[in-house]
Structure formats: structure tokens, C-alpha cells
Amino acid sequence: DAKRSGRRMARVFDESMDEDIRFRRRVESGLGEAIANNELSLVFQPIVSRESIEVVGFEALLRWNTMAYGPISPGLFMPIAEESNLIHDLGDWVLRNALAVLTQWPGQYVSVNFSPRQFRRHHFVDYVSESVRRAGVDPSRLQIEITETAIFDDAERAAETLGALRRMGFRIALDDFGTGYSSLHNIRTFALDCLKIDRSFIEGMGRERESAAIVHSIISLGRALGIGVIAEGVETEAQVQALRLAGASHLQGFFFSHPVPAAMARTMAETRAIGGDPAAAPRAMA
Ligand code: C2E
Ligand code: MG
Ligand code: MG
Ligand code: MG
């Protein structure tokens, strides 16, 4: 009967909650050891210019290869890290290692993701500027990627932080744009270099008028503000053509390259070409 099945459901729910909590604890304790155990690495995904498909920068993406369970995706462990203090150690590790790799590239920038808690921490500006100074890197070669969540809770303070970073020469990108709670009014007051259109809109573009409309309006907004627009998650030739027509300034996605290890990224940086071979015409140019 209904009562009994309700009870059964409640029990299943409890068990899956337990399961969930146990999983989170395992992730937390594993992440706490991940740096010492050498389980972290960075991969780099090229960002290319719309027309010439020149590699202008790379997004650094964190990878965690656990001894016990194999690779675990950042989409899964970053939110758990973000809810604990682990985010700060992980974030430090990412920034330090991304800057070390960057010094081996000729002129491109590295785009590093900063979580809302990292961004809102006191002395964030000093922390980042001190990090690049120690690495001997020019601030213009670090792009700071933050999401709307990081800046819209306390828009006034965020605007100050972004303004200070921009005056020091850092690049600022608003990641996953369109999925958060941006108000257009606020966008105007933020010192930004580019908007990154969330992958979900690129993916939906060929199927739904709504996604295509959102992609077009983000590109128009970027143009009106005089800033760049990077389309993320570009997987097909049709998307490349549509985004070129729409006027996105830069493209990033599996169509061009998956995220690659540092050594491969270096080859792409030196040749400014996907796959490291400038003679091989990029597929997108065909
Ligand atoms: P994100 O910053 O939006 O990064 C883009 C994600 O899309 C990456 O997933 C990338 O591998 C994936 N991607 C790129 N091109 C394509 C494509 O054509 N198709 C598909 N299906 N996916 C594509 P990844 O590496 O799994 O990272 C997921 C998220 O985890 C990131 O989203 C970011 O929010 C977070 N993350 C990763 N590394 C870091 C980090 O070092 N620090 C922080 N705070 N967050 C990170
Ligand atoms: Mg990102
Ligand atoms: Mg993104
Ligand atoms: Mg994301």
C-alpha cells in the first residue's frame, strides 16, 4: 500500500543519502592528500582566433587521477572542494603550476579558473599579483576566469576587485556566461576582456531557436561593450561556420583540440597551430 511504499522509498532515499555523504567524505579526504600523492595534473585546451585558427591562449584544466578509483572529473570534485577549505590549496596548486608552464610558451596567455570562494577571499588581488611576480610572468599573460556566481553576490566589491586586477594588466573572462544571474546593468560596471559563452548554448544552437538567439545576443553584447567573445564547447564544423557568421571572436572546443598535456601545448604554442603543425591546414579552414 501507499504507506508501506512511502516507507520503502524513504529508506532507499536515506541509503542513497548515506551513499552520497560517504562519497563526499572519501573525495574530501582523498583530495586532502592529492597534492602530496602527486595525483594532480593540468591539461591545456587551446583557444583559437575565429578566422585564422591561430592559437592565442590556453585554458588550464585540473585533472585528478586517484590511486584508488582512477580519474575523477573536476565537474564532480571541484564543487566538493569549493564547499571545504580544500579549494584554497587546490587553487594555489593550479595557479603555481599553470604559471610555471606558461613561462615555456612564446606569447600566449593561460586562462585559469578561479572559484567564487577564491575570488572573494581577502587579498585576492595581492595574492594573484604576487604569484605572477614570483613566477616572473607579465600580468597580461594571465587570464582570470570567474563565473557570474563569483561576482553577483556583492557586485560592488567584485567591481573593485576586477578593476584593480585590470589596472595591473590581468585579463578577465566571465566563464559559462548566460547560465548565471548576470544583470546587464552590472556587466557594464565590470572590467572584462571577454565573455565565454557556455557550452550548453553552443550545443543547442543547431537544434533550438532559443539557444541560437542567446548565442547571437551574447555576441552582440560583447561587441557593444567592445570586448571579446569566446565560444566554448565547439564540436562540429557547422558550429564553427555558424559562430563565425555570428561574429564570435574566439573558439574553443573538441573540434579543434581536446585539452592536452603541457608538452603538447608547448608545441602548439610555438607553432601557433592546432596539433603543432602550421603546414597542415586546420580542418576548420577547409
Ligand atoms: P569550464 O571552466 O567551463 O571548462 C570547460 C569544460 O568543458 C572543461 O571540462 C573542458 O574539458 C570541457 N570542454 C571543452 N571543449 C569541449 C567540447 O567541445 N565538448 C565538451 N563536451 N566539453 C568540452 P572539465 O575539464 O571537465 O572541467 C569542468 C569544470 O570544472 C570547468 O568548467 C570548471 O568549472 C571546473 N574546473 C576545471 N579545472 C578547474 C580549476 O583548475 N579550478 C577551478 N576553480 N575549476 C576548475
Ligand atoms: Mg573555464
Ligand atoms: Mg566554461
Ligand atoms: Mg563550467
UniProtKB/TrEMBL annotation:
Entry's transmembrane regions: none
Domain EAL: 24-273
Stretch forming the signal peptide: none
Protein name: Diguanylate cyclase (GGDEF)-like protein
Species for this entry: Sphingomonas aerolata
Source organism phylogeny: Bacteria, Pseudomonadati, Pseudomonadota, Alphaproteobacteria, Sphingomonadales
Residues of the full protein shown: 321 to 606 of 611
